């Protein structure tokens, strides 16, 4: 499900700043501690930024890195695009199987997830608010579809 994949991707990246046990993104593996710390610092400050602002901040950071790291980052972004395309196809397939209530919930969730005006924090709060108010059966239906996409 594209919306969820993008969000979970974003929150997984944000989690790097919050959990030292979280695995580094592939493009940072083998990097110096200072480089990793700079990246984590960007993420620590990303909660109030929109997706575009986060992308711009990380892109600007990547531009200042050594050529090898820049190349890894570009490859990572290409992989992410492919992952998003695969996710979109899976999302469409999941929607076809959804109940009417799950389709309505997905529409609301997708609208929030894809809204470029919301910050990462706002998206997380709004999504959590909607999900928490869904009937248990609809929550389970959506969660099952998300697991099948991964």
Task: Walk me through this protein's architecture.
It is a single chain. The chain contains 7 helices and no strands. By secondary structure, the protein is mainly alpha-helical. It has one domain. α1 crosses α2 (33-44). The longest helix is centred in the middle third of the chain and has 31 residues, at 67-97.
Tell me about the biggest sheet? Answer: none
Low-confidence stretches: 1-21
Roughly how many Å is the radius of gyration? 17 Å
Helix content: over 70%
Number of domains: 1
User: Topology as H/E string?
Assistant: HHHHHHH
Mean pLDDT: 84
Can you tell me the overall shape? elongated
The computed structural class is: mainly alpha
Question: How many alpha or pi helices?
Answer: 7
Distance between the termini: 9 Å
Strand content: under 5%
Domain SXP/RAL-2 family protein Ani s 5-like cation-binding: 37-139
Signal peptide: 1-17
Protein name: SXP/RAL-2 family protein Ani s 5-like cation-binding domain-containing protein
Keywords: Signal
Compact summary:
It is built from seven helices and no strands. It is elongated, with a radius of gyration of 17 Å.
Task: Kindly list the characteristics that best describe this protein.
150 residues, mainly alpha, 7 helices, elongated
Topology record:
Elements lengths: L1 H17 L14 H12 L6 H13 L3 H31 L2 H14 L6 H14 L2 H14 L1
Helix pairs in contact: 1-2, 1-4, 2-3, 5-6, 5-7
